[in-house]
Structure formats: C-alpha cells, structure tokens
Amino acid sequence: MARAVLCVPNFSEGRNKDVMDSISKAISETPGCSLLDISAGESTNRSVYTFAGTPEAVVLGALNSAKVAHQLIDMSKHEGEHPAIGAMDVCPFVPISGVTMEECVQCSQEFGQQLAKELGVPVYLYEHSSDKTYRKTLPDIREGEYKGLSKKLEKPEWEPDFGPAKFVSSWGATVTGARDPLVAYNVNLLGTKQQANRIALDIREIGRGPKQPGTLKHCRAIGWYLEERDIAQVSINLTCPSVTPLHVAYEECVKQAKVLNLPVIGSEIVGLVPLQLMLAAADYYIQRDNLFIAHEHQKIMLAVDRLGLNQLGEFDANNKIIEYKMQLKKDGKLVGSTVRQFVERVAARSTTPGGGSVSACIAAMGAALGAMVGWMTYGYKKFESVDMVMRKAIPPLNDVTQKLLPLIDMDSEAYTSYVEATKLPHRTEEEKAKRNAAMDVGLKKAADVPMSIIRIANQCWPHLVSLAEHGNIACKSDLQVGCKALLTGIQGAFLNVQINLKDIKDQDYCSKIMTEANEAMQTAEKLCTEVLARLDECSTK
Length: 541
Fold this sequence. Notes:
Elements: E1 4-7, E2 10-11, H1 17-28, E3 34-41, E4 46-53, H2 55-72, E5 88-97, H3 101-119, E6 123-127, H4 138-142, H5 149-152, E7 174-178, E8 183-189, H6 193-203, E9 219-226, E10 231-238, H7 246-259, E11 264-270, H8 275-288, H9 296-307, H10 317-320, H11 322-326, H12 339-347, H13 355-375, H14 387-422, H15 429-457, H16 461-470, H17 476-501, H18 507-537
Parallel strand pairs: 5-7, 6-7
Antiparallel strand pairs: 1-4, 1-5, 2-4, 2-5, 3-4, 8-10, 8-11, 9-10
Helix pairs in contact: 1-2, 2-3, 6-7, 8-9, 13-14, 13-15, 13-17, 14-15, 14-16, 15-17, 16-18, 17-18
C-alpha cells in the first residue's frame, strides 16, 4: 500500500461558499493531494476538509490552504457556535498507510514552522507533537477561545511553539499536531433525547464527573434527537479508536440501552473511516459468532451488517473507507497487468521485471492453489468432518497470497534503486564514498525483498501438510502443483538473495541474511518433500 497521511484542517468559515471553494481549490491543485471530503456547518460557521497524500504533499497542501484562508477569512468578524481559536483553527496530521506517528509529528512541525514563518502567526502543537503536558489536548489550548487569546499570549507558559507571541486579530492562532484517527460515530436507538444522553454520560470517558467516570476510554459523547428520522442518537467521538474501536462503542451502547429497555437499531459513521477499524469489527463478530470469512470484501459486509450501518442510508464502502476512496489498495503496475502483459514484460529486453518478481509471482500461485484446495474441501457434506481443519488452513494461505503479490512490484523497484545509485557521480573521493554507500543501500533493498518472499512463502508449509492429509483427494494434482510452485518461488528468491549479497560491503549483514536463507531453504525442501509424500500415500477419502 502507498505511503499516505491524512490531513484534516478545520477553518472558521462555513457560510461563504466562495471562500470554501477557494480553500478546496488550493488543496485539490496541490500535486499529490487527494481531497476526500468537505463538511461545513452554517450555524457553527465552520468547515472541515479531509485530504490525503504523501507526507511531503500534505504539508504543502495544508500550507496552500492556509495561505488562501489568510487572505479571505477575518477572525475579528467571525461568529459561530463552534469553539475556535483561529481562522485555520486546527490542522491535524494522521497516519493511515505506511507512515509512522513519528513521521506525522515531523509533518506537523514542518507545517507549523513554515506557517509561522510565511504568515507571521502564532502556532501551537498538540497531541503527539507536544511535549507540554498542560497543553496536549485541543480543549486545553482552545480554552478562552479567540476572544481570550490576546491575554493568553501574554502569559509565558502560553508562548507559541512557532511564530510570535502576539495577537494577530485577523487570524488568531493555529493548532497543529499528529494524532490518531478520530472517528465520528452515532449509535441509533428508539428512545428520547434524555435517554440517549443518559447512555452518553455513562459511556464517555469523563462520565458524570471525577468520581463517576464512564466505561469507554478516549470517548466523548452526547445524546440528541433527530426529528426528521424520529430516532435518538448517542453521538460519539472516538479520539483513539485503536483503544476503543467502533464495535466496542456499539456493543457498549447496546448493553447500556438494554438496562433502559431500549432497542438499538443501527449506527452511522460521520465522514470517513480507516479500513482497519472495519476489519477489526468484522474480526470481533467472526470470533464471537464462530463464523468463517476469509475475504476482505465479505468482512466489510459483515461489519456493515452487525453495526447496522445501512439503517439510515446505504453504506458505500468505496466512499466511506479512507483507503478505498484513495485507492491505496490499487494494484501496482505489474500486479495490475494481465497475465499476457506480465509475461511479455518479463520476456522484453529489460532487467526488470526479473527473477525476483517472477519468484514472488510463482510463490503466490503456489499459495493460491493451496487455498483453492481448501475451498474445494470446505463446506461439502462429504468432508464436513474436516471443516474446522479447513477453517484453520484457508485464511493463512489466502493471507500469504495477498502478501506476496505486492512483492512482484517491490522487487523491480528495489533493483531500480540500486541501478540509480550506480549512476551517481564518482569523480572525487567524497562522491565515490556517497555512491558506494547508496549502492550498498540499494543492494540491501534488492536482497531484502526476495528474503521477504522466502519468509512469507515458508508460512504455507504447515497448512499444505494439513491439506495433504485432510483435503479433497480429487484436487491432489492441484496441491502437487501448488507445492512445487511454492518451492520454485522460494528457490528463485534464494538465488536472488545470494546474487545481491555478493557485492554488499556489510559482511555482518550478509552473514546474518545468508544463514537465515540457508535454514529457510532447507525447511522448504524438507516440508515440500513431506507434502508430496503424504499425497502419494493418499488413496480415497
């Protein structure tokens, strides 16, 4: 999956369409940024933009949008119900794919520095980006809001992290930082606003006060009533959904509603949701209800059903799940090609795709054949006695298949990085040293990818042994081919590891990797022989 950061700037303007459109344009026209969602409220006079891209792109997109807001929004004339401290009130950076929280902290720091430098405005850091315990949360920094900011800036403890400690009336201040994904989530019930609020008070982290905390960590909640729908809602903000995920919040609301003899009839996600939260919900219900679901799209369907996400309208996964909307799971240039195109690319006058990519492809085919044999056994009355065996074998084989596919492209990309390093200038001793170091890094990448192929592919063998013993004997040849394909992929990857290690200067690294590769190769050959031997012993089942 691509490296991506989510950026969610909040602006103190939700009524003037021209201003909001100008901000949208600034984000959309920033190379590498994808504008995913815009939510604006007239009474709050506030707009929330959700966009994503590489770390470098989102920092630039945030700066571009801030510059437009600086020209068009005047906080001295602002009125709205939502608490705010500035024109660009808050600008969080959220890791969503292939990016660490530390990298998002760097994004917020770079953004804050540039914003203060270019616009001359005060900027505060919060959440993971702040090292000051008394001003880590947004409510702490916002206390007193825009009207109290002038006096706040006079206090030494409220000196901005970046920019001047002076009041800029047209702007106010901006809060930026790295945070976990925040999910706005409403649970629907047939009851009154007061009853919904009782549940909200019981589940939210602060509860009813210091002596009576709520049941859910990192949860903010209130109750309200939707006249147009004739239902009550427990409106929830999950500020750290890795600690309190969707299904935990939903089930706790169900539990609390039962005490009040109220039916929960579904829920809704406001805005976008990370894929991992939907899959976590699916995994919870799979385990709770003893279900067997292996494919991702079916897991999403299960989560939508169990959480009642279609109750107020269709839950469109392609538009509600961040990774799907961004197409982060879009296949790479090789994986996304047809079989004919891939084979012809291999046959072309080019070093990539080469043996490493082909090894990943062959190994993936071997794992896939194993999964197929599992499916051709599972669910049939004739083999129902081994259903539980298949339930254990199919998911990991399917998982290995999915993990090996991206390595087809990654192997070619790794080799390309080495080739690029060889093109660096090497006239002076300094240039030679820099080039040699870059080549060493490139060769390590080129060795790491096939080593990953070996590690991942070797996870299949215990399950192939199980299939050889319990699988549908009519698929004997399919499993034999799968077994041989898996071994061939591992052997090919092993040869690629060997050839890339020979020119690496770091001998400790080479020795460590080669020892692991040799042991893994011996394991693969031994277990392949065992699978084939068991298949040869089989007659009928």
